[in-house]
Amino acid sequence: MLQDSSKEEQIPEVVDNAVTPLVWASEVPGRSKLAEPVKVTLKPGAKPVRQKRYPIKWEARKGLEELITKFLEYGLLVECESEYNTPILPGRKSGGKEYRLVQDLRAVNQIVQDIHPVVANPYTLLTSLKEEHKWFTVLDLKDAFFCIPLDIKSQSIFAFEWESPATGRKMQLTWTVLPQGFKNSPTLFGNQLAKELEMWEKQNQGDGILLQYVDDILIAAESKETCFEMTISLLNFLGQGGYRVSRNKAQIGKEAVIYLGFEISQGQRQLGNERKEAICQIPEPNSPKELRAFLGMIGWCRLWILNYGLYVKPLYEALKESKGQYLTWTPECHKSFQELKKALMMAPALGLPDLTKPFELFVHERQHPALGVLAQRLGSWKRPVGYFSKQLDTVSKGWPGCLRAVAATVLLIQEARKLTMGQKIVVYVPHMVITVLERKGGHWLSPSRMLKYQVVLLEQDDVELKTTAIVNPAMFLSTKKSYREIGT
């Protein structure tokens, strides 16, 4: 866990020669020089968690021994006597030779007070990038959570039992730093790093920008020189602050990088091949649990898949009809499963939202999913920014088609606003939704829903509604004037 073993990315010489060698990850773990020890607060009435250790084969214990010895040597783990105990198990690293230490902290997470997560949303994070940004750096902090110390009074909560394969001695160990698997670790670490990065950003104002998602950092700049300058400055800042960066994962001064599983280049983002291939290698599910796992993974990519809601509809219906571990798998499910994979592999690059330009949103409703395309003009054509799919709720599914179109419009405007950040949206719909709402809404909608729809459609100045005869998103995107306005 403390040493990289995969093939290294080449670090540009101009960068490598200008940064402190301390910043690159080695066996010696990093430690933030500014972070205060974290105090973990338990929920009222919480009782100590006592769980027996999982049986671990001798071979696996032998594989963990070297790792645990290093953690003890560097003070990440210490011996203790605690009334708490949660089990550990060995996890194979990619490649299958080395082990990593996995601790089952689910029971501890249940008794620890929640803190509000302020981790950036990957869905909206990239809206800060500009069309002019064409050079990028991606940095991954190594063993990031281990950089944040735990208050000594909170350490006993994370104790686990360990039996040495060499001597057979049993003991309890616990963490002195934020452990992996603790529900609050991402937020606690992300907040600390964000505070420290603010100090760096005050001294590095220019045409570049820095984005942070937990321990993954992206620098974007208009020129290669600025990108290198910012990268050198940031690496030295991190190294001097006690953090360590994974050298083999660093992508420095490139026109295209992989960040959070997305391939980022000037003005656009697309799904990385590794993510697409990993999903497409998943076999057909044999249980509801396996189907939910697939839907979770493919759902992350929904923004890139036109008519996503139509593809997944049979799969969600199969989940509803399934009982226990039995999965109702029909020929329609098989077809949808394969079509989703095909659509994923053909997923296009999406434009990065340009918050200086207005957006165009095309909305339609088919078989109850609300479907849409958010686009912006790039020269003479419309470049898609995202494909939207949202299921109508049970109540609105029973409405006439014209009112379902109103519901779909409201749903997708709310979804689009996550990317448009208040910029104007011209919304193209197949019905005169305002007229439909005024004439028929009173017969079908509750007063509270009626008010909500009126607020979204009428009382916000970022929305302009236009009615179009176009029903195919491909036609909407294909030409300079691909819609025929028939009213407002």
Automatic annotation (TrEMBL):
PROSITE patterns: RT_POL. It is an enzyme of class 3 (hydrolase). Residues 70-264 form the Reverse transcriptase domain. Pfam families: RT_RNaseH_2, RVT_1. Its EC number is 3.1.26.4. GO terms for molecular function: RNA-DNA hybrid ribonuclease activity. Signal peptide: none annotated. Belongs to the beta type-B retroviral polymerase family. HERV class-II K(HML-2) pol subfamily. This is ribonuclease H. It comes from Grus japonensis.
